[in-house]
């Protein structure tokens, strides 16, 4: 099925100024070419697409990135107190000077371009492979575009349990930057890796992360998206989990006129565990969309989706979450909750929870709620001496707690909590 | 300590007058009880004192140690020394009981210009208070009032009172939903706090609670007014004869 002429033109215009990287091995060239074919077949998303009804893709579809002011902020960046390996990208370009030495015991870290230049590399089985698997049954054109045209990125192979997290740090300095970053990660059997992400990346940011977790491996991911009010970002996380492996991802989102975070998690080996969580806070011109797809394709797997949004003053939050339990994926334990706390009558929450189950011995639950702050609780706290703004912050943090609890490392969770408290204080009425 | 002067209050939403001229003077060191039939305005009085939204004071005033209470926000009233033990304590999922109490205590200390209590000192304080109220340490870790039994909720109110050490304690039907043993425990908690510098206003339907918390003065409230005031015997009279006789007598 081809695209109508108009759609084809738009898709071609979108990529007209993008270039595929040169000097790559045959398998990498093929991966880029196949991704381009996928993208051109899908075309750009429109409002009529089932999964784009809540979010206008216009700014992501535009050939040029809409300019975004470089955010000016005073507080120190998140994760600053944590011993971590820093990898810095400036407007989507790796900055070796600002980064730490990439040598780390238990990890093989390489720049994407150099890895893709090797004829034989583990990356061949991951790059674009997980992304392509995640295109069914729902098309994710910006992920295919990313695979085809990623301008930079890092690939990581973890062979041991590494306690020091790898921190991808993004810096935004050019108000017109249009960054496309691609990360491919392979966590080998029995290895354990933590990846942190933070910082405004570019005026427009397209990020794709592919994570292959082998049997018994564990991958932890904590991300903070914030500070840059005019951010337009579309990000994808593709993960495939082997037997007895674990995948845990948490995202804090604050500010941003357009953020779409997609995840496609495939539980492919028995007894794998996948948790994906998000806490988003928006005030004013804010649109945040979590689109999550979890596929159970093995026996005895557990998945949890926990998404919480606090919205006010015209802010919009969207959640589209699906649990697909394939035939034979017995003893599946699936859980999904998406909730919003609307701090005034101008905020909006749109949710589409979905379950699709083809096995008969499964336990799946899902819930979605939207509500205001509990005035009785607020008065109770006030009557005990808490000023109203503090009382409200306490209730907001209590609302977000279930998502934040998904962060396993206490120091990281404390850091995230501190950021949230700061944001709430700055946005008090 | 607490002076209520010709207080008139109406419900904002229903345009319904609830209090029609309440006068009350509760001196420091004393325990006053307010009894009265359903709908007499007892709980409204408690809410108005604590500053809950939805009530409009149309006439009169309330002073706590000479300070105009009605001008203050609920949290300012708390910092000024007022405490309301709720008839229906509110459940707050996600907020740990301990965190809640420490935040409250420190907020009040901050408002009074005192230093915050350290985590270690607070732990010591709350453990000793909890022990005398026979509160399970596990209850301190759980979210505020979530999954607490009726008795646990009321004991938790008294625990908050013991930690915050207010000057003026208003107990709104603290006996409701309590069995005899739980009531004794709550009463013991209150009695332990009786002090020269502290006053209590105990609101109740029944005389039972007043067997355990002996009042100095008993007021009978009906139709938004204090209709009769007397000694502890007045409570016994209500217990024996009900409210009807008294109401007839003052009518």
Order of secondary-structure elements of chain B: EEEHEEHEEHHHEHEHEHEEHH
Shape of chain A: globular
Largest sheet of chain B: 6 strands, mixed
Give the overall silhouette of chain B.
globular
What strand order characterises the main sheet of chain A?
Answer: 2-1-5-7-9-11-13-15-17-19
- Largest interchain contact: A-B, 23 and 30 residues
Give the oligomeric state: heterodimer
Strand order of the largest sheet of chain B: 6-9-10-3-11-12
Measured distance between first and last alpha carbons of chain A: 52 Å
Strands of chain B, total number:
12
Ends distance of chain B: 30 Å
The Cα radius of gyration of chain B reads 18 Å
How is the main sheet of chain A built? 10 strands, mixed
- Helix/strand/pairing class of chain A, anyone? alpha/beta
Report on this structure.
With 429 residues, chain A is α/β, with parallel strands linked by helices. Chain A is built from nine helices and 19 strands. Chain A has helices at residues 5-15, 26-42, 58-61, 112-116, 129-133, 141-149, 375-383, 388-404, 410-426, and strands at residues 85-90, 93-94, 107-111, 152-158, 166-171, 178-187, 192-198, 204-213, 218-225, 232-241, 246-254, 258-267, 273-283, 287-296, 302-312, 316-325, 332-342, 348-357, 362-371. Chain A has a ten-stranded mixed beta sheet, with helices on one face. In chain A, strands 3-4-6-8-10-12-14-16-18 form a nine-stranded mixed beta sheet. In chain A, helix 2 (26-42) runs antiparallel to helix 6 (141-149), helix 7 crosses helix 8 and helix 8 (388-404) packs antiparallel against helix 9. The N and C termini of chain A lie far apart (52 Å). With 251 residues, chain B is of the alpha/beta class. Chain B has helices at residues 42-50, 74-80, 97-111, 119-132, 137-141, 150-164, 180-193, 208-212, 232-241, 243-250; strands at 2-11, 16-26, 31-35, 55-64, 67-68, 82-85, 92-96, 143-144, 168-172, 199-204, 217-222, 225-230. In chain B, the strands form three sheets. A six-stranded mixed beta sheet of chain B has the order 6-9-10-3-11-12, sandwiched between helices. In chain B, strand 11 and strand 12 (225-230) form a beta hairpin. The longest helix of chain B is centred in the middle third of the chain and has 15 residues, at 97-111. Chain B is globular. The interface between A and B is medium-sized, with 23 and 30 residues.
